[in-house]
Amino acid sequence: PPSRAAMAAAAGECTTHSAPAGGSGEPATCMDPAIAEFRVGEFAGATYSPFADDGLSLNLDAIGPYAAFLASKGLHCVFINGTSGESMSLSEAERKAITERWVAEGAKQSPRIRVVAHIGCDSLTATCELARHAQEVGVDAISSMAPVMLKPTSAAELASWLKHVCAAAPRTPFYYYHFPAITGIGVNPLSILRAVEAARIPQFRGFKFTDYSLFDYERCVTHAGGAYEICYGRDDALLGGIATGATSHIGNGFCFMIGPFKRIKAAVARGDLAAARKEQAMVNRVVEVMGDPAFGSGLAASKAMQALRGVPVGPVRLPIRALDAAAMTLLRARLDALGFFDWCD
């Protein structure tokens, strides 16, 4: 006789859960084992998109040295075309070109740099096309914010949108990019997980959780017995994230000062909370410098930090103002006063 799994699949049921897989005629939609086993891992660098000096065209040749630098610092996963990558200031063609080059250059490193591509746009069709392309060129995972102009007003609306996006890349793990300070989307993250489960989205692997609410973070980390990878995305609160259950982290600070973050995790592992707090405080003094109004946008300052580490990736794109020579000199002096270049690695 046929197995229960075969009978369930023929009946349109999920072979892991007893409930129907979805709408009439839908195939079974349980998570593929390869997707279930995928992890971003301990640290993933949120990279900057490389521009030429005019800020208007890409400098894709900068990605090779960038990848080699990150690999030399022990960083073997990147989150590309996200907020730090100025994704919403890029065209679809530019995002595709950056994705292709990161996959190619990441493959040259040993071990290979895994690529998580942010593919979110306000347009659902554009988001689906970027998801399709990302899978085609061989990224390891994809991620997306929700639309930020015409926003979803409920978890069910958001889950419906995500289901369309994930269907465009059915073999690729997906992470929802939760960043309410940027998107203005206040949908409760735990309710998003529950809506995704109700919608049966098999590629859904977890979150890039960029928010200071450790209450909400803990609820997501422990939901469903810890089945999801909820990557914490606030560099300046990394220690709090660890205390609340974070084991995976995505941030731009890892790209230019991975040292203190590694030391925070090592100190926690050996039970030395005082040392972990000291390292977090050092990180936060740098974050304070980058946030100084003298530098305009914090993103402009942090992208300049990458150049100060010997990996120039160009200016930010308008309307953000890039740092001029005087501002770069001031930034370098402020960092020198902190002893930054002695402890950043």
Strand-helix topology:
Elements: H1 4-10, H2 33-37, E1 43-46, H3 63-72, E2 77-80, H4 92-107, E3 114-118, H5 124-137, E4 141-144, H6 155-167, E5 174-178, H7 180-183, H8 189-199, E6 204-209, H9 214-222, E7 229-232, H10 238-243, E8 249-251, H11 258-269, H12 273-290, H13 298-308, H14 325-337, H15 340-343
Parallel strand pairs: 1-2, 1-8, 2-3, 3-4, 4-5, 5-6, 6-7
Helix pairs in contact: 3-4, 4-5, 5-6, 6-8, 11-12
Describe this structure in words.
- This protein has 345 residues and is an alpha/beta fold.
- 44% of the residues lie in helices and 10% in strands.
- It is built from 15 helices and 8 strands.
- It has helices spanning 4-10, 33-37, 63-72, 92-107, 124-137, 155-167, 180-183, 189-199, 214-222, 238-243, 258-269, 273-290, 298-308, 325-337, 340-343, and strands spanning 43-46, 77-80, 114-118, 141-144, 174-178, 204-209, 229-232, 249-251.
- The chain has an 8-stranded parallel β-sheet, covered by helices on one side.
- Helix 3 (63-72) crosses helix 4 (92-107), helix 4 runs parallel beside helix 5 and helix 6 crosses helix 8.
- The protein is globular, with a radius of gyration of 21 Å.
- It starts with a helix and ends with a helix.
- Residues 1-29 have low confidence and may be disordered.
